[in-house]
Amino acid sequence: FLTKSGIILGLGETLEEVRSVLDDLHQNGVHLVTIGQYMQPTREHAPLVRYAPVSEFQGLKEYALELGFLHVESGPLVRSSYHAGDALETILKRGAEPKIG
């Protein structure tokens, strides 16, 4: 089986904190990760602290792939099941084995 998790940027986290979370997820056997942008749905929800630039999403994707995640979707409009079918198909075609630790 495969495991997946997601991270949302824009609530005040640092780049070091996000990388640390990616490290922890990978060390604990997560295979796929999504990284998206938080968008405040209503005034009653937590306020947006900042918009992450596209270059930050790309850098985090590269970092996560270097860690050994089987698939990473990273961008401002990415949501939890973003291209899930495509991700699974890519992994199965490659016959990839999870690289943990």
What's a concise summary of this model?
This protein is 38% helix and 16% strand. By secondary structure, it is an alpha/beta fold.
List the helices and strands and how they pair.
Elements: E1 4-9, H1 15-27, E2 32-37, H2 54-67, E3 71-74, H3 84-94
Parallel strand pairs: 1-2, 2-3
N to C succession of SSEs:
EHEHEH
What would you call the structural class?
A: alpha/beta
Overall average pLDDT: 90
Terminal-residue CA separation: 17 Å
In spatial order, strands of the major sheet run: 1-2-3
Residues in β-strands, percent: 15-25%
- Care to count the β-strands? 3
Describe the model.
By secondary structure, the chain is an alpha/beta fold. The protein has one domain (4-94). Helix content is 38%, strand content 16%. It is built from three helices and three strands. The protein has helices spanning 15-27, 54-67, 84-94, and strands at residues 4-9, 32-37, 71-74. It has a three-stranded parallel sheet, with helices on both faces. β1 (4-9), α1 and β2 form a beta-alpha-beta unit. It is globular and about 45 Å long.
Task: Name a few traits of the molecule.
101 residues, alpha/beta, three-stranded parallel β-sheet, 3 helices, 16% strand, globular
